Amino acid sequence: MKGLVISSSRNIFTVKPDALGPGRKETLRGGVETARKQLTCRIKGKVLKGVEGYGKPLAPGDRVCFDWDPGHPHQGLIREVEGRKNLLTRFNRQGQSSQLLAANVDLALCVTTPVSPPFRPRFLDRVLLQADKAGIPPVIVCNKQDLYAEGRADPDTEERLQDWSRIGYPVFRVSARTGEGLGELRSYIARRFSVLLGQSGVGKSSLINALAPDLHIRVGSLNEKYDRGNHTTAMPVLLDIPGLGEGTGIIDTPGMRRFVPDRIQAQDILYYMREFAPLVGKCTYGLSCSHRTEPGCKIREAVSRGAIHEDRYESFLRIHDELAGSGYDD
Ligand SMILES: Nc1nc2c(ncn2[C@@H]2O[C@H](COP(=O)(O)OP(=O)(O)OP(=O)(O)O)[C@@H](O)[C@H]2O)c(=O)[nH]1
Ligand SMILES: [Mg+2]
Ligand SMILES: [Zn+2]
Hints:
single chain, 330 residues, alpha/beta, CATH 2.40.50.140, Rossmann fold, Ribonucleotide Reductase Protein R1, domain 1, 3 domains, six-stranded mixed β-sheet, five-stranded mixed β-barrel, 9 helices, 13 strands, binds guanosine-5'-triphosphate, binds magnesium ion, binds zinc ion
């Protein structure tokens, strides 16, 4: 039997079995009713082939093959994960391992706010880097537009949004509270699988509620409120959103305080920063240029003529230093 991973907590996975065709009801214990439900699954044996080296080996969006668990009635044993189209991860400092956030998605919705929590462009630059590395097209969603009217918004926000847009990222300005801008976002994500990413409190879960008020999912998943500052029990979860068209799904992820890029070597960052990438290797010192003090540096030249925003350059320097110093690259 095959199914879709909805969420994972420790070594327990929630899997939605594929709908069974006519005449195949009996193969799924409990009949067709079970086919629509979510099943609790464990992994057969100790490790899942091909996905060693991760804290939790499966992410929402993974497709798995499973059998019935002889030891646990109505539960499954996962024996295999199907090849992934893509995989979004981040580096977990505490666990010193990759944390899987989402698999097989079409879009990464990177959520930010002009204030409350404070606008943090550097956090977003890290998320954009990771999504581009994973080959998942990122989209920027600036939520809480209603706060502009209150005059509390960080004045840098609009400038950075325009710059991200200039370098090729779609930008949506929305408010989960007033509904502003949600129509466009709704049509953009319809019939696709997206993952929501962002700091705690930017309104990821509120956006899901606003985008799909008619959600028919388990109340537990929808109402589950991730404690800010305490992410021990929080986990990414896939929500089915049939109201936006067949095949629409969103993976809600726990709010993160920091985003440490995963499985990217310091010297490769520039390949995944869109406006830097065409300049790689063009400096006078070629690939050995650190883009800091060397004469004939094309990156710094691009910064001074405005082709690279100063703040993106600053993001590059900081991410580089963090990855170069951490020693976990593989
Ligand atoms: N003013 C305003 N507040 C909003 C908006 N969207 C969400 N909020 C508020 O922001 C707070 C956080 O919203 P959540 O949806 O829980 O944020 P989250 O990103 O899911 O947070 P985590 O689950 O901790 O990662 C709540 O108090 C919301 O009511 C908005 O568009 N405008
Ligand atoms: Mg949330
Ligand atoms: Zn250089």
